[in-house]
TrEMBL record:
SUPFAM superfamilies: Peptidyl-tRNA hydrolase-like. Keywords: Hydrolase, RNA-binding, tRNA-binding. Belongs to the PTH family. It is an enzyme of class 3 (hydrolase). It comes from Clytia hemisphaerica. One of its GO terms (molecular function) is peptidyl-tRNA hydrolase activity. This is peptidyl-tRNA hydrolase. Its EC number is 3.1.1.29.
Length: 209
């Protein structure tokens, strides 16, 4: 990896052994971002994670997927953040959220894990809760007692069809709010405003042009 540029990490949380499950939607968004830019993943043994990187002007974006189970994802992330001396303000975590319907996304800059074991692991490992998160809605099962089975199961066929739009929306939010400002094309100011409002825990409502 190159280190002459400002380093940023975009980490998709999930279970690598169940990478198509609802719980691993953060990893899937990373996969979609990598595919969009024709990037190939490599396994980094010392981090127990898969990584690839994207250069944008004077920034290097490392896409990151831990091979540890979800509740231990933070171990891998802490190691690469520490090893490469990445500023915590340059760390973005993507993860699923039960309390949002599929397709609804929002930003969060700091705060508790809200019961999410992957985020809890990241907070414990980084010893801070002040990192940016993109929370990706997956919805809740009708029967609350089925939550574990629900998050570990794959999307339905209908949800898979919708996932493409979800991934596109998340990538657009990352492009506008994580990548350098110069990357945002002229005419995107209205959409940027919507994303900024997401910090107030409002739904993302970016519409296709």
């Amino acid at each position: 990896m190159q280190h002459s540029k400002t380093l940023n990490i975009i980490a998709g949380l999930g279970n690598h052994f169940a990478k198509h499950s609802r719980h691993s939607v953060g990893m899937r968004i990373c996969d979609s971002l990598a595919k969009k830019h024709n990037l190939s993943w490599s396994y980094e043994r010392k981090y127990k994670a898969f990584t690839t990187s994207l250069s944008v002007q004077d920034h290097q974006f490392i896409l990151f997927k831990s091979k540890w189970p979800m509740n231990l994802n933070g171990r891998s992330l802490e190691k690469i953040v520490s090893d490469l001396s990445v500023d915590i303000n340059k760390v973005t975590v993507l993860h699923d959220e039960l309390d949002r319907n599929l397709g609804k996304c929002r930003w969060k800059l700091k705060g508790s894990a809200n019961g999410h074991n992957g985020v809890k692991s990241v907070i414990q490992s980084l010893k801070t809760d002040k990192f940016r998160r993109l929370r990706i809605g997956i919805g809740r099962p009708i029967n609350k007692s089925d939550v574990v089975d629900y998050v570990l199961s794959d999307f339905t066929a209908a949800e898979e069809q919708e996932f493409f739009e979800v991934a596109t929306r998340c990538i657009e939010m990352l492009r506008m709010d994580v990548f350098p400002d110069e990357v945002v094309e002229v005419g995107q100011n209205e959409a940027r405003t919507v994303v900024v409002e997401g910090y107030a825990d409002k739904d993302d409502t970016i519409k296709d042009s």
